[in-house]
Amino acid sequence: MSEDLLFELGTEEIPPTFLPEVAENLEEDFRTGLNEERLDFGEIELFYTPRRLAVLVKELQERQEDRVEKHRGPSEGIGLDENGNYTIAAKKFAQGHGATEEDLYVEETGDGTYFFVDERIEGKKTDKLLPALLSSVIKDLDQPEKMCWDDSSVRFIRPIRWITCIMGSNKVDMDIGNVESVAHTRGHRFHGDERIHLDNPSRYEEKLEENYVIPDPACRKEKMDAQLSEVTSDLDASMASEKEFLELLSNTLEYPSIVSGSFPDEFLDLPDELLFKTLTGEARLIPLVDSTGEPISTFIGFRDGPSDETGRVRVGYESVINARLRDSKFFFSHDREQPLEEYLDELKTVTFQEKLGSIHDKVARMRKIAGRLSSNLEEYDPELVDRTVQLSKADLVTEVVDEFPSLEGTIGAYYAELDGEPEEVVQGIKQHYNPRNARDDTPEHPTAIAASISDKLDTLLGSFLIGEEPTGTKDPYGLRRKADGIIRTFIGREINLDISELIEYAGSLYEVGGTDEIINSLNNYFEERLERVLERVYEVPYDVVNAVSHPGRLNFYDSYLRATTLEEFKEKQEMKDLVDSFTRIVNITEGREKGEVNPEVFQLSQEKELWETVTGKIDDIEELARKQSYGKMARELLNLKEPIDEYFDNVMIMVDDEDLRRNRINFLLYLKEPFLKLGDLSKIVTE
Amino acid sequence: MNLQGLIARLEEYWREQGCLIVQPYDVETGAGTFNPGTFFGSLGPDPLKVAYVEPSRRPPDGRYGKNPIRVRQHHQYQVILKPPPRESQDLYLDSLEYIGIDLDVHDVRFVDDNWESPSLGARGTGWEVWIDGLEITQFTYFQRVGGLDLDPVCVELAYGLERIATFVQDEESVYGLDWDDKFTYRRIFQEKERQFSTYNFEVADVDDNQKLFKIAEREAKKCLEENLFYPAYDMTLKAAHAFNILLARNALSVTEREKYISRIRNLAETIAAQYVESLEDTPDERRPII
Q: Which CATH superfamily is domain B205-286 in?
């Protein structure tokens, strides 16, 4: 027998950024809990709004199955006395499991003969198991934030205000903190009933919709999409904010109804990003652009509740956004009273890090690092790079960035453009924070690339210098993201340089000086991150990652090229064979010192043939490695497969004759070299 | 509804809910949180409901009386409920209806916004309450005050009275607000805004205000040596106000700003610790509640 179960946790408003995660964790933990209790069930539907988290479990078994549990007791020697009668220990053991000595039986085990008893365990009723299960799920739920809201000791992301729990048509009695379960739910705070009786869990969604709550997040989002496209198609306009923003909005309300309004045209003169940010960030409104991508003075908002019949909400939104835009315009005009360059001096008052000086100091170091980097790269104009880096942080002391921190870079670029700075400088300032996270694009313009790398590298090294390097669990300054950003930029923008030289140079720029030890540990950190980035971002299989990571070499782009080559060749059968042969070479030569190969000592024709083939090709192969033509290089190495196979089929390495043996080992060591320039093939998993 | 009527209605509503009504504090405060009713009221084990109006001075927010919504001094209506009743949100929403706001036709939202006061060593979890996009209240479950985890916790409602009045009276500018059916906000406050903005931004002497800060801090420490945490608290408020003036004068780098804040916090934390300790030694009938 089974019944549907509805469990709803009514809360005060859960922040939209955390809501989906918390709801999904709840479903997951509840599912695990039901499985651990060995309860069968059909589908689980998950619902959530800012004010409720709910799971509807279909066809939940009403009672656990009865089962038999086998227990091991005392050994035969302890369970029976010398007369073959049961001892007290044996009797106690049987009683402890609800049995008598009659039920005992012996079995051989790996470590002797023991008494066993089968205990019959009667299945419990589900509604008796649920209270403890659900309250432990709630209390132990993994959440990004927890708080207290009353004198109970319960902590949750936001206050829990009601619990609805019904199985079939019966209430399940339970409590969490000061809240006891009920058999009814609540509608929208202002527009629905306060008590909605549920005679059947499966009517949950329908009953709530009658009461202005759409509990299914996907339905809510769909409703918003539909209303939005109706308005935008009438206007021939489209949304100027990201798709994620709509999703975020959908998790701030229970019943979305579109409201469209407008603001005075004069604000269309603001920089687009500032206009958009004012609408989205401060007022959670959606900006629109026309078919040419130009902003228009109509905005979209979503009210929580039925449609705005009186127009009062629209008027309210308009007056709020008007005031906000007026403020933004004030900040913008105020900032433009002087050119961007004039703000540089003020950076002296902004602390970068207490022990590492001001942002002004940081920019001075960044200029040197970027200069060093661009001197090694032909297409980088040193003057433009320097100007970019010099101005890159100036907007940090402007009013607009003070008000909208996320516009750093963007607004500086805008001001630079108005000041008549070259386009490369403008783009450089704009993109130099990229990539901000794993999904973000790497910077594109050389000016931006140089500024981005110098900025991130300076922060990384500085943090290592003051002992704030990231550990497995803590990374307060987001250093992992910065290191990954640098690596992705090197790879994505094909910067064919070894970064360790740049790190050493950067280390010399700090007053304290970068000690060798710290520079080493940053190099090691980059090695570690390179492996992770290759694996996670570029989806290189882990064995290939192992094959291309070379201690002491930090040319990210080169590692990437070798990795993609190996990944491509790895699937070929002859490559697999080659890997096996190479692995033999590695195993045999392990721990051996290199020595001269003497062709005079060769005895067998296969030795001589392989020697001639290899010596004939070695220059070509090394040249290909120098040119990083790893595809061609791999093909050349594959050509060696047959002679190597021939060699191993006929040549015995570990012969008694010491000279002969030594010479053969030296030959293998010599043979190993060119392969290692592509990667340590022995790390490749061929099965 | 005029502004004084609005205040009277709120006072009436919260008195009906059993709140102790106290008066605005007579030392400059930057927010209702600094009134002893909240700082001391939130600490300590006894249940408490307290409410009051608090003129809140924020020198850096001054706009010479020219900005329609930003002012150097605004008024908060502050309510503390300890421990928070289960229907805290409803009580708050009912109070909005009590001052004549029809919640059915508007869009009322609780927008996540955790609150922190580094200078009071305080933080809480909560929301801004928006009505048709306008922020009118901070609704916060205090978790920590004066560096101490609260037990029990309390909820703080901080109504922005000017904001609510512009909404209720449908006014664009605070200066057009009707205070008592006779005088507007302009006639009561605009010239003060102009003069104080000029003083805060242009005239206030940086050195002297730094001295004022130091003197107040020294006095506070002297008081704390004698276990006189109430006078120490007044001195801390005076130091905080001098700090706010220095902020308005743009006289502090970010690092210096952090240092000042941590000096205020050190005082606040010592005061909180002494207060809580003193409660433990005081018999019930004599134990202070704020």
A: Class II aaRS and biotin synthetases; domain 2 (1.20.58.180)
A281 touching B (Cβ < 8 Å) = no
The single-letter code of the amino acid at B246 is L
Q: For A280, which residue in chain B has the nearest alpha carbon?
A: B133
- Provide the residue ranges of all domains of chain B, joining segments of one domain with +: 3-201, 205-286
CB atoms within 10 A of CB A54: 25
Identify the residue whose tokens are 């003060």. B192
Whole-number Å distance between alpha carbons of A491 and A204: 52
Question: What's this model's pTM, rounded to 2 decimal places?
Answer: 0.82
**Interhelix angle A382-392/A446-465, nearest 10 degrees:** 60
Per-residue pLDDT reduced to its tens digit, A630-662: 999 999 998 888 888 888 888 888 888 888 888
Query: Top-level CATH class of B3-201?
Result: alpha beta
Q: Does B254 touch chain A (CB under 8 A)?
A: yes
Q: What is the 3-state secondary structure (H, E, C) of A612-645?
A: HHHHHHHHHHHHHHHCCCHHHHHHHHHHCHHHHH
* B201 touching chain A per CB within 8 A: no
Q: Is B106 touching A (CB cutoff 8 A)?
A: yes
Within an 8 Å CB–CB cutoff, is residue A12 touching chain B? yes
Domains and CATH numbers, chain A: 2-63+125-210 (3.30.70.260), 67-121 (no CATH), 217-335 (no CATH), 346-537 (1.10.3210), 563-683 (1.10.730)
**Residue-level length of chain B:** 290
Distance CA A83, CA A544 (A): 68
Q: Which of B48, B105, B201 has the highest number of chain A CBs within 10 A, making it the mutation to test binding with A?
A: B105
Beta-carbon separation of B172 and A319 below 8 A: yes
Residue B55 main-chain phi, psi, to 5 deg: -70, 125
Between CA A273 and CA A161 the distance in angstroms is: 40
Tokens coding A268: 């269309």
Segments of chain B with pLDDT less than 70: 254-255
Burial of B137 (0-12, 13-18, 19+ CB in 10 A): buried
Beta strands A160-167 and A179-182 are: parallel
Give pLDDT tens digits for A84-99.
889 998 899 999 888 8
CB contact under 8 A, B108 and A178: no
CA distances from B186 to A52, A386, B176, B177, B190 (A): 45, 52, 6, 8, 5
Residues 6+ apart with CB under 8 A from A396: A347, A350, A359, A408
Coil/strand/helix, residue A171? strand
* Chain B residues touching A349 at Cβ < 8 A: 253-254
Residues of B within 8 A of A305 (CB-CB) are 104, 107
Question: Among partner residues A13, A149, A259, which is closest to B141 by beta-carbon distance?
Answer: A149
> What ipTM did this prediction achieve?
0.95
